[in-house]
Write a structure and sequence with these properties.
By secondary structure, the chain is α/β, with parallel strands linked by helices. The protein has nine helices and twelve strands. The structure holds zinc ion. Zinc ion binds next to loops. Belongs to the ROK (NagC/XylR) family. InterPro entries: ATPase_NBD, ROK, ROK_cs.
Amino acid sequence: MNDKTVLGIDIGGTKLAAAIVSTDGEILTQNRIPTPTGDADEIFAALRELIDTVRGDASPAAVGIGSAGPLDQQLGLVSPVNIAGWRNFPLVDRVRALVDDVPVTLGVDGHCFALGEFWTGAGRGERNLLGIVVSTGVGAGIVNDGRPLLGQSGNAAHLGHMVVDLDGEPCACGSFGCVETYASGPRMVARAQRRGWRPGESVDAAVLSADAAAGNELALAAFDDGAQALAAGIVATAVTVDLTTVVIGGGVAKAGPILFDPVQRWVKRFAQLPYVTDLSVRPAQLENAGLLGAARLALNTLHP
Ligand SMILES: [Zn+2]
């Protein structure tokens, strides 16, 4: 049977997305809605409607869910930082009740991003890959022979919270000097402003990137600092797990060469051991890598 399909679901702070995906990674139907506010049941009711719309007459053989963290993979609970109504919400059980008890798998959104790019995006044809999402935070995932590297609690590869500065600033996670304190969009903007960058009315990473492209030294310096921290996290990960393909996506990565040029330069500087000197750092190719990665999670349960 080659007409088998799976259902991918992507849970984020700004949108909920779902898609019916073929076993070779083709999206057959998809839809998205803004993440509703409200209590746990109101949010789930909106997700349920989204799933019904996307599913139509299809009978997916498995379901994969990628969600913003934190989450408990073993118990199937999610508590996404930006979805206040869901705290320890039993998402896996609730979705399973909608889909006739087919396998339902839950994964970290960063893992799903990496898996999606590995499957049909910038990492196609590779065996191993580190995927990084740089936006208001820094998420990541590692794919090892087609499977996400989970770790003991399912949260492996949290590169954004790797400490790269022993005297660094406090981080939202409670630690200090994390990659994220340099490389997230808001942190780059804040650093540039502290040094005297004075943008116009709107203040965000896109404006910072435009100013950097126009040659503004303060904006360029903030991107260079962010790139250096990212490169340190990338090379530390590559040295640890022995991989050579890195894909970077997310809002801040839309800066293109403004981010990628300094990342490449710092990666070259840091990566000296022979097995990591060929590190390839590429931009993501997919708009919906997280959704495709969630579908791939589902597919993996059918081919253990
Ligand atoms: Zn941190």
